[in-house]
Write a structure and sequence with these properties.
Blueprint lengths: L14 H10 L21 H9 L6 E8 L1 E2 L11 E2 L3 H21 L5 E9 L7 H14 L1 E12 L8 H8 L3 E7 L3 H6 L6 H13 L4 E8 L6 H14 L3 E6 L21 H17 L3 E3 L3 E3 L4 H7 L4 E3 L2 E3 L6 E4 L4 E3 L3 E5 L3 H7 L7 E6 L2 H16 L1 E2 L4 H4 L3 H9 L3 E4 L2 E4 L7 H6 L20
Parallel strand pairs: 1-4, 1-13, 2-3, 4-5, 5-6, 6-7, 7-8
Antiparallel strand pairs: 8-10, 9-10, 11-12, 14-15, 15-16, 17-19, 18-19
Helix pairs in contact: 3-4, 5-7, 8-9
The structure holds S-adenosylmethionine and iron/sulfur cluster.
S-adenosylmethionine binds next to β4, β6 and β7.
Length: 459
């Protein structure tokens, strides 16, 4: 059940915006890759990836992603690939296998790889026992040349930050932490089953900074049940107490056909598209007043943050982690569901942790699916990335790469995009629709497995 949110304080989105949402706010991919994960197929498996790894010479600095699949409890909105466990030994056993996968992969490389970025995501990496984190880092340093300037980051659930963990992160060289906060309103928190008092956030940030993990990101969500413009205003005000250098403001992706537990949230008031946009716009207003600059479609940064600087210089990138300053062409992903990126294409590990663990009892890499990229894919990926990162794209072949010409012209007619000579620009009004503009260059949309119905809403 989707109902309009009750918020008597101020009107919701203006009528013209509602018409635009109806026209262009439908499901579109998030474009953390192109082709998107829906084009991945079983034809790209371990044998293909072994070949890609074997050709990895002069790769420059690669990035590493480690998927830590476990959480202490389930948040009802969660769209991540995770399993709940209360047993530390389950996580320790998973880490054993993750280390084995790293060793198998490194053994296939023709030369020692330099690593310039390491990111631990999940699930909840801050829930991994400290002794196991130490083991992971010992093996990373044994197998790869981790550069002195590497960005080392972790997704942290402030509810699962054991005493001693901040100090360990400082010791292991972590320099950035992303805190999952979502919303600070207690009614919203109870409905989404994630109770996390603001004092807990304040304490976590203070402990991390004291331990030397200086760069703090936070994740917020808009579009959750019971959220209003007033609750969002308070959530942003609470963030100002933490002064993170980056804030990711993700639109809640409601995909109960994939994540059945999300259906419970339909018992409450889920903001509809216009209410979502109104709440999003409120956050934008408050964050702008507080001195943050909008980066891409869903990030806000202090102007001194490297991501804001990269965006200004046209050097922002997009990969499976979302927006990033990391320009590495090679990303090695380890763990259940982890995606790797090579020059030749993408490959994803088996998604379900139990099946991933089972596959690793046999020889070879635990690859489930992937896709090889063609020259056309690379060109379209460039355009989509430019649009989502810098709100503009240019290049002589832009016109040839356009797939949905009429739709783009309609969006231009509605003031969401404009041509400035050979450059296509998303207007300020069009920023919330940037994914829909980018989708005009997607040659796969609506084809094969990539049916629109499988994506979450575009706005
Ligand atoms: C792996 S979690 C972060 C680490 C830790 N598990 C936590 O929740 O604090 C990654 C982020 O994904 C976002 N997320 C989770 N489910 C989502 C959904 N259904 N739609 C949009 N974003 C979602 C949340 O903002 C969350 O902080
Ligand atoms: S949002 Fe984070 S803590 Fe909550 S279930 Fe998902 S991955 Fe786990």
């Amino acid at each position: 059940m989707q109902v309009a949110i009750q918020d008597s304080e101020t009107p919701l989105a203006a009528k013209p915006e509602m018409e635009l949402i109806a026209k262009y706010g439908g499901p579109v991919p998030r474009y953390t890759s192109y082709p998107t994960a829906l084009q991945f197929h079983a034809g790209v498996g371990a044998a293909t990836v072994e070949g890609w790894l074997g050709s990895l010479r002069d790769a420059g600095e690669a990035s590493v992603y480690l998927h830590m699949a476990y959480c202490k409890s389930l948040c009802l909105y969660c769209g991540c690939n995770m399993k709940v466990t209360n047993k530390p030994e389950t996580i320790t056993a998973y880490v054993d296998v993750l280390i084995d996968e790293m060793r198998r992969t490194a053994a296939l490389l023709p030369e020692r790889l330099k690593v310039g970025a390491i990111h631990l995501g999940g699930g909840t990496p801050s829930y991994v026992p400290m002794k196991d984190l130490r083991r992971v880092f010992a093996v990373l340093n044994e197998l790869f040349d981790v550069t002195d300037s590497a960005e080392i980051s972790m997704e942290i659930d402030p509810r699962q930050l054991a005493e001693g963990m901040p100090a360990l992160l400082g010791e292991l060289g972590f320099n950035r932490a992303s805190l999952g906060i979502q919303d600070t309103n207690d009614v919203v928190q109870q409905v989404i089953r994630r109770v996390q008092p603001q004092e807990m956030n304040v304490r976590a940030v203070s402990q991390l900074r004291t331990a030397g993990v200086q760069d703090i990101n936070v994740d917020l969500l808009y579009g959750l049940p019971m959220q209003t413009r007033a609750t969002m205003r308070q959530t942003v005000a609470d963030m100002m107490e933490l002064k993170p250098s980056r804030i990711a403001l993700f639109g809640y992706a409601h995909v109960p056909w994939m994540k059945k537990h999300q259906a419970v949230l339909e018992n409450h008031e889920l903001p509809d598209a216009e209410a979502r946009l109104a709440i999003f716009n409120t956050a934008v207003e408050e964050l702008t007043k507080a001195g943050y600059v909008a980066v891409g479609i869903d990030h806000f940064c202090l102007p001194t943050d490297p991501m804001a600087i990269a965006a200004k210089d046209g050097e922002l990138k997009r990969n499976f982690m979302g927006y990033t300053t990391d320009a590495a062409p090679v990303l090695l992903g380890f763990g259940a569901s982890a995606i790797s990126q090579y020059r030749q294409g993408y490959a994803q590990n088996i998604t379900a942790p139990a099946e991933y663990l089972d596959a690793m009892t046999r020889k070879g890499l635990p690859i489930a699916r992937g896709v090889a990229v063609s020259e056309g894919d690379v060109a379209r990926r460039g355009v989509i990335e430019q649009l989502l990162c810098g709100m503009r794209a240019e290049g002589r072949d832009l016109d040839d790469l356009l797939v949905q010409r009429e739709r783009l012209e309609a969006m231009i007619g509605d003031g969401l995009a404009e041509w400035q000579g050979e450059r296509l620009c998303v207007t300020e009004k069009g920023r919330p629709f940037a994914r829909a503009v980018a989708a005009c260059f997607d040659a796969y949309l609506g084809k094969g497995a990539s049916t629109m119905g499988r994506h979450s809403k575009g706005v």
